[in-house]
Specification:
Number of strands: 2
Number of helices: 6
Shape: elongated
Structural class: alpha+beta
Oligomer: single chain
Strand order of the largest sheet: 1-2
């Protein structure tokens, strides 16, 4: 249904702008066609699968930090060696760890699958581009055919097929 709507819109647009050429119709369709734009966005999303899978093969870095407030109160009973009292201080700690598994088959399989998915996404995007070219050229040819039939009727011919091989120049030549 969307294809038919695009086809009709492009055909009507092409008929309205007689000076519009095939390349301009293609450019317009490329910027406004929902099917093509959807394929383009899906392609961009699929391209992100490869860096995500590659990240599984890279080392893992963890950094953690902590701080602890300490409030210590000491009271010694019956001892003169140690003094009783209170103390407040902070304990701080930092840990940086780097982990690299030597070999994880599941990560390598994920990476290989991502490569295939990107290849498939590229093929789908190219197919959507070619489909857009075909739909734009069909819209262009339909609009050209419609203009040719209109000129033929204006020249007094019932159909374009009854025009001699010279087409438009012949019609202009007859009216001159």
């Amino acid at each position: 249904m969307q294809r038919a709507a695009l086809f009709l819109a492009l055909s009507a647009h092409a008929l309205a702008a007689s000076s519009m050429d095939l390349l301009q119709i293609y450019r317009d369709a490329r910027s406004s066609d929902a099917i093509y734009r959807s394929a383009q966005e899906a392609y961009k999303a699929d391209l992100e699968k490869l860096p995500q899978a590659r990240s599984l093969l890279l080392p893992k870095v963890d950094l953690s930090a902590n701080t602890m407030g300490n409030d210590v109160s000491l009271q010694y009973q019956g001892s003169n060696i140690f003094e009783s009292g209170a103390s407040r201080f902070n304990s701080k700690g930092y840990v940086l760890s780097l982990t690299q598994p030597l070999f994880r088959l599941d990560n390598w399989v994920t990476y290989t699958e991502a490569e295939f998915k990107v290849t498939l996404a590229d093929a789908r995007y190219r197919m959507a581009s070619q489909d857009l070219i075909l739909r734009a050229s069909r819209a262009y040819s339909v609009s050209r055919h419609g203009r040719s039939r209109k000129r033929a009727r204006q020249c007094g011919h019932s159909d374009q097929t009854s025009l001699p091989g010279r087409g438009r120049r012949h019609c202009q030549g007859e009216s001159a």
